[in-house]
Amino acid sequence: MREHHQIVEVDGHRLRISNLDKVLYPETGTTKGEVLNYYARVAPVLLPHLAGRAMTRIRWPNGTAESSFFEKNLPPGAPGWLRSVTVPSTGSRGGGDTITYPVVDSLAALTYLANLGSLELHVHQWKVGDDGQPENPDRLVIDLDPGAPAGLHECCEVAMLVRERLGELGLASAPVTSGSKGLHLYAALPGKLTADEVRDLAQDIAQDLSKAHSDLVLSKMTKSLRPGKVFLDWSQNTGSKTTITPYSLRGTAAPFVAAPRTWEEIEQGAAEKDGLRQCAMSEVLDRVDAQGDMFSRLMSGPS
Hints:
Elements: E1 5-10, E2 13-18, E3 23-25, E4 30-31, H1 32-46, E5 55-59, E6 69-71, E7 84-88, E8 98-102, H2 107-115, E9 118-123, E10 139-146, H3 152-168, E11 173-177, E12 183-188, H4 195-212, E13 217-218, E14 230-233, E15 243-244, E16 256-257, E17 259-260, H5 263-271, E18 279-280, H6 281-291, H7 294-300
Parallel strand pairs: 13-14
Antiparallel strand pairs: 1-2, 3-4, 5-6, 5-9, 7-8, 9-15, 10-12, 10-14, 11-12, 11-17, 16-18
Helix pairs in contact: 1-2, 1-6, 3-5
């Protein structure tokens, strides 16, 4: 197939954009041009949550009906203006292997990577300091992963338990439907704990809740134990791991998004079996137009 491309200027940088009519989401016929438009429109609320964070990507160059691949390092042939950072592969200070990640701090950088079919944008819970090394995490994340027949309804029930536990620690929390099958719960941190200490804190919360609510909550990774329960994946706080960023698209058949939600929506999802569902790309744009960056407000506000 012949490649069609055009040159556009974004933030003063000339970018070669190709195949805008290529279908990336077969279920809805969503094209690459529509994906680039989404990321351009959502950039004002997305970029603050990418700034200073090393990024990994999952790329679907030929759409989500075809194969994907996970990319950590800076893409081959990346422009010189694309910021990058080389850090230890473990995500913690020390020697050993290193990875050179892109750091997305502009619409130009976001557009460049999206043009490569980078639908999913994943980041660490730590930022890179002026010395080029990972700082202590500035947030905690717990991934609520339901095992069928459990679903979002059960995730909402468990999210409220996690919110209460975080509130006891004086931490405000923000829920994000993952765009896949579960829900993520974030809490802002003052940066005093190391990645290992944050991971241990998340594990303690998961273990405490699994003991108190053993019929619904699971803290062990054993897949055979998951049916009908919600696994609290505390390991996402490990220094080397990344989590899908709020407002990122997912590589699903239709263009779903990791969407920040209000606690009122989570409460409704807990009260009603079908009270909450994942958000599509167009819905997220409408929500951002109406409400701005809900995620930042929840992370800084009272729990």
